[in-house]
Design goal:
The protein has 1137 residues and is of the alpha+beta class. It is 24% helix and 34% strand. Among the domains are: 133 residues, no CATH class; 172 residues, no CATH class; 65 residues, no CATH class; 103 residues, no CATH class; 169 residues, Galactose-binding domain-like (Jelly Rolls); 90 residues, no CATH class. The strands form eleven sheets. Strands 21, 22, 23, 25, 27, 28, 30, 33 and 35 form a nine-stranded mixed sheet that branches. Helix 1 runs antiparallel to helix 10, helix 8 crosses helix 10 and helix 10 packs across helix 13. Keywords: Membrane, Transmembrane, Transmembrane helix.
């Protein structure tokens, strides 16, 4: 762009043209490869896990971040980076100038002297010179790049939005405006400022003596500027943490690795466990990206290189997953299983050398501060111990690093204590056994219909030795996909995955190497005209298309009243996950309990049967009981007692008040303002010794008032989207009533719901599990506010129903029947359907009357929660908005977690699952479903303009189309944990973030269904010839030579380098430079490159594996060196003439 301005504004066009050509040719050695990288890998940068968090952060900054003052003064984004000195435990900025500027904002008065001069100079250069056009390139560059660095927040920000939306990669390449644009402003601004000073001097000397002008310039500009920027010339041009002396132990380690004969990869542990960081901190002082690869001649695995390959990103993710809870493996058998998985994975990706580095630590001992990050040396050491214990690796060497006597020459340690308190720490080198060669051949490969790009992270592929995509189809593993969609109702769900190729023909269904430890059982009531019976079915597998896999294994006669079908039922809303019946009504006199789960009784018409529900069980034998209501009585609402806010949700704001009115046994009124109100009641005196089930029924009505305006909350927060904020505030705030029936000493609800306490409605709360033996049962109500809000609630006419066991029978689940091949036809998508599990482990949101949980705390700027027709709307500025559910959880189970949401603006939400100690799942929503460019999302991302109307904002909100985010939570058979888990859907954003949530589901399915595989009866496995005497050698990292004896059958070559479609096999060095490949790369085994060689390329000659972009590098260097030589020759000829 700079050269373009120069070209346009200069009158000597030919000369300008040659200058531009020379400059491009001079930089061709990096421009050509970078252009290829941008085109080929542009989308990867957006999705590389180490870049996702920083991209989301940079693209969703508050408007104040792009204020003219910040951009005019070149305020760098790294000035926001901080650390924590060990002695003070107080955060400090990495750069001293940032500390000064952020603590003393008036320092901007000095900083703005330069912007004043260059802006003045730019204007003067447009006005004063006689030949303005020749000088116009300077203000042109300056003002253009200033416009770009202000992004959407300049007066003409709509133009920047247009460029972002219509120029490929524009937003991604220029997401860091300071690093991309500030240097050009500084360059042109320096010239413009000098011009301004010359003009001012010429004008000033007419009225002021030269000596006074010079003195004034020194006092007003030179001295303040030098004083402010002195840090740049006293050792802090860059961050102090960048100066480090690498211990000699790393050089010794590198020498030993380089001496090893193989080409295997090097894995350096511990690795940063979160995906948002790729810097690693070392106790000897270094904090930054990878450095060790400069010492070795073998490929090095590190998060630094994720933007070049999503395959590498998935390698890092899998390593992190394999280390999870590795210290908590309960048995030697579990340790063996984990060791097998780790070794198999490391073999697959070609790791030969393992480094365990004890110095990788957030505790920077020799610098005296705590760095950010999450690294775990004990987990890394456990990996090495397991590999050693099971014979998969051997220890080669240990290298000592003495922190006490560490040489620090040439380094700067500004936060170092007078004496280093350090230890001796070690580097350990391990060598893995039997690692496959870099270039090898495959005898047999399983063809897959479609392989998920993150198949390395999917456990279903761990038991397949070799796999790859087949052009004409192959096996498909539906639950190993991250791009499926879950739909359905309270009765059943349908899971669909997209297909690029149609399925047609005979298929078999199997569960690969997975024991059938869990069963999905369906219950139905059958009416034969004489009596009623309970029918039990075993779901062997989901229904595929229209092919059903279930078997009846039990029919039990039910001793029901003969006239039960005539029982009258009052209209009521069941606040549970029971199926919403299409035929018949629920009979409240009876309930059925199967394996501890409660089901309704619904009476079908004669000759029919009606579905009651389903459950997943780990048991081969279980009991089925018929429960009969023995007592219904009014519940005395005067037994409720309130709880102080500090013992409730502890969310009281200013002017908080609460009142619980218990005027009559049938009416309870609760009022709360600016804080939650909790109240509870014991009912153990109501239950009898025979009571095993309880249900509570009541009428609920509520009203609320938004008090944000009264308290002026968010009024002074500057927004660039006032119409959107106003539209959001026009919706009413939800008032949430949390109901929980539980044992007083426990937190898990046996019955519960989170209801909107607004419209008048009669609800029935049903316990889902057996209540027999409860010592101190209680009913808990929590009436929650959202920020500044007043809520009034009425509970009326409450009743409680008690049920006793009427009959019981023990049943056994038989083994599944043999599955035979079946005809399958599917095009565009494959559909699997199955009944929904009803248990504490499953959840389905009905936004007509219930809500997920949310936090009511206020943030420093502005945040609000609103109820809309399609669910819940959250809006925040510089805040965190979270919706959540708390659920029982087991590592032995398989769960599917979905959220249907609409993203209006701000960062993409994060899906988090964890317990009170740690998070086990943290992933950006919709990562495999179109992220970050989902159609219809982000209509409010840009600042509002004069063209943004209130009607347009309202129309966009009303027509918002939610999309589904899905997470597969696979069973972990080697870890035993049954802690309750929380599922969080969280948006954290600095700009105005808006999202709506219209549905949330957690569906449990039998654990072995995760490995469900559909395989065509023909053509799913392809065999290849193993050639004799396969040899290979490395010429360059991008060029490998191999050969083998001639064969007559096709050969598959596996090249264990991260998959890239630009690898190819070439028949000669001439073709390497100029020709086409004889075999193109396809992804195999989830990571590597595979090539199929047929016909004349079946051996006997040397073949070459080559990375095509190296051609551009060679061409670039030719152009660069040629331009240098040409310039030298032209210069000599010019001087000679």
């Amino acid at each position: 762009m700079t050269l373009g301005f120069l070209f346009i504004t200069q009158q000597k066009l030919l000369k300008s043209f040659f200058i531009i050509v020379f400059f491009v040719a001079l930089n061709a050695y990096w421009l050509l490869p970078f252009a290829n990288y941008t085109v080929q890998k542009g989308s990867i940068v957006q999705r590389a896990p180490t870049f996702v968090a920083i991209n989301e952060s940079q693209l969703n900054k508050d408007s104040s971040y792009f204020s003219p003052l910040r951009q005019l003064t070149f305020y760098p984004q790294f000035f926001e980076m901080y650390f924590t000195p060990s002695e003070t435990n107080q955060r400090e900025y990495f750069h001293p100038l940032a500390e000064y500027v952020n603590k003393y904002p008036r320092a901007f008065g000095v900083i703005t002297a330069f912007p004043f001069l260059y802006l003045l100079g730019g204007v003067l250069m447009i006005i004063l010179p006689k030949n303005r056009l020749r000088w116009a390139w300077i203000p042109g560059i300056m003002f253009t790049f200033l416009f770009l660095t202000l992004k959407e927040y300049s007066p003409v920000g709509i133009v920047y939005g247009f460029l972002t939306n219509h120029i490929p990669f524009f937003e991604m390449i220029f997401r860091f405006g300071d690093t991309k644009f500030h240097p050009f402003i500084a360059f042109s601004g320096s010239i413009a400022a000098s011009y301004a000073l010359v003009v001012l001097y010429r004008w000033g000397r007419r009225y002021i003596k030269k000596e006074y002008i010079l003195s004034g310039f020194i006092v007003l500009f030179i001295i303040p500027t030098v004083f402010l920027y002195k840090e740049y010339i006293t050792g802090n041009l860059i961050g102090f943490f960048m100066y480090s002396r690498i211990p000699d132990a790393y050089r010794s380690l590198a020498e030993d690795i380089n001496k090893a004969p193989g080409y295997g990869r090097v894995l350096h542990l511990p690795m940063e466990e979160t995906t948002q960081y790729y810097w690693r901190p070392y106790s000897w002082g270094y904090f930054g990206s990878a450095f060790f690869h400069y010492f070795i001649n073998k490929p090095y695995i590190d998060r630094t290189f994720e933007p070049a390959s999503m395959e590498n990103a998935y390698v890092h993710t899998q390593i992190t997953d394999l280390l999870e809870e590795i210290q908590s493996l309960p048995t030697p058998q579990a340790e063996r299983e984990r060791a097998d998985r780790i070794y198999s994975f490391l073999q697959n990706i070609g790791v030969e050398h393992l480094i365990i580095d004890e110095t990788i630590s957030t505790n920077q001992q020799v610098r005296g501060y705590e760095a950010w990050g999450n690294v775990n040396v004990p987990n890394a050491q456990k990996v090495a111990d397991l590999l050693l214990a099971h014979g998969y690796a051997k220890k080669k060497s240990t290298y000592e690093i003495d922190l006490q006597n560490l040489k620090t020459t040439g380094t700067r340690f500004p936060y170092l204590s007078s004496k280093i308190i350090g230890d001796t720490e070690y580097l350990s080198l391990y060598e893995l056994k039997d690692i496959p060669d870099k270039v090898s051949s495959i005898s047999e490969v399983r063809l897959m219909q479609e392989v998920s790009e993150d198949s390395l992270n999917r456990p279903q592929y761990e038991h397949i030795e070799h796999y790859g995509e087949g052009e004409s189809g192959g096996s498909i593993i539906p639950f190993a996909r991250g791009d499926g969609e879950l739909t359905g109702d309270h009765s059943s769900v349908q899971y669909t995955v997209p297909l690029e190729r149609p399925l047609q023909g005979k298929y078999t269904l199997s569960f690969a190497e997975q024991p059938e430890d869990q069963s999905l059982i369906e219950l139905a009531i059958r009416n034969n005209g004489i009596e009623y019976s309970l029918v039990l079915y075993k779901r062997i597998a989901p229904t595929v298309g229209d092919v059903e896999f279930k078997m009846q294994f039990e029919e039990i006669t039910l001793p029901l009243e003969k006239d039960i079908a005539s029982f009258e039922q009052e209209p009521v809303t069941y606040a549970n996950d029971w199926p919403k019946q299409q035929v018949g009504e629920i009979i409240d006199v009876y309930r059925i309990r199967a394996d501890g789960t409660i089901f309704p009784v619904v009476i079908p018409q004669a000759g029919n049967e009606i579905y009651l529900g389903s459950f997943v069980t780990e048991n081969d034998d279980f009991s089925v009981e018929l429960l009969e209501r023995t007592k219904r009585e009014p519940y005395n609402l005067q037994t409720f007692r309130d709880i102080p806010n500090s013992g409730c949700y502890n969310d009281a704001l200013e002017k908080n008040s609460a009142d619980l009115q218990l005027s009559t046994p049938t009416l309870l009124t609760a009022k709360t303002k600016n804080g939650s109100l909790c109240f509870w009641s014991e009912f153990k005196d109501v239950m009898t010794e025979k009571t095993t089930h309880v249900e509570l029924e009541m009428t609920i009505m509520g009203a609320s008032q938004d008090l944000d305006g009264l308290h002026e909350y968010g009024r002074d927060v500057q927004t660039v989207k006032p119409r959107l904020k106003s539209a959001v505030q026009s919706f009413s705030k939800p008032s949430l009533l949390n109901i929980c029936l539980r044992e007083r000493s426990l937190e898990t609800c046996l019955a519960g719901a989170k209801l909107f306490a607004q419209e008048e409605k009669r609800f029935r709360i049903t316990a889902t599990r057996d209540m027999a033996g409860m010592l101190d049962p209680m009913i808990f109500f929590g009436l929650r506010t959202s920020g500044y809000q007043s809520v009034e609630l009425e509970l009326r006419d409450a009743t409680i129903d008690l049920y006793d066991e009427e009959a019981r029978i023990e049943v056994s689940i038989p083994p599944s029947s043999t599955l035979t091949p079946f005809d399958l036809t599917a095009s565009g998508e494959l559909s699997l359907s199955f009944p929904r599990d009803i248990s504490l482990h499953s959840y389905v949101l009905d936004t007509a009357y219930e809500s997920p949980g949310y936090f009511s705390d206020l943030c420093d700027r502005y945040q609000t929660m609103r109820r809309i027709e399609k669910g819940i709307l959250t809006f925040g500025q510089g805040c965190e908005s979270t919706l959540f559910v708390n659920m029982p959880y087991s590592t032995q189970n398989m769960y599917m977690w979905t959220v249907d949401y609409f993203l209006g603006s701000g960062q993409y939400p994060i899906m988090i699952m964890g317990d009170e100690h740690q998070n086990y799942l943290v992933e950006r929503a919709s990562f495999f479903q179109g992220y970050p460019n989902i159609p219809g999302f982000h209509p409010f991302q840009d600042p509002e303009t004069i063209f943004t109307s209130t009607q347009w904002v309202n129309t966009q909100l009303q027509s918002a189309n939610p999309k589904q985010a899905i997470q597969m939570i696979y069973p972990q058979t080697d870890v035993a944990s049954n802690k309750d888990h929380s599922y969080y859907f969280r948006q954290t954003t600095e700009n105005e973030g808006l999202m709506t949530v219209s549905d949330m589901q957690i569906v449990r399915i039998p654990a072995h269904w995760a490995s469900l595989r559909l395989t065509p009866t023909q053509g799913s496995i392809v065999s290849y010839k193993i050639p004799k005497n396969l040899t290979f050698s490395r010429i360059l990292p991008s060029l490998w030579k191999f050969s083998y004896e001639k064969t007559e059958d096709a050969v598959m070559i596996k090249f264990s380098e991260g998959y890239d479609r630009q690898w190819g096999i070439y028949s000669s060095m001439k073709d390497v430079l100029f020709g086409a490949p004889v075999a193109k790369s396809t992804r195999c085994d989830g990571y590597a490159n595979c090539f199929v060689l047929t016909e004349e390329w079946l051996g006997g000659n040397d073949l070459f594996i080559f990375y095509v972009p190296e051609r551009l590098a060679v061409l670039g260097w030719i152009l660069t060196l040629g331009s240098v030589m040409g310039a030298l020759i032209a210069s000599r000829l010019y001087r000679a003439s």
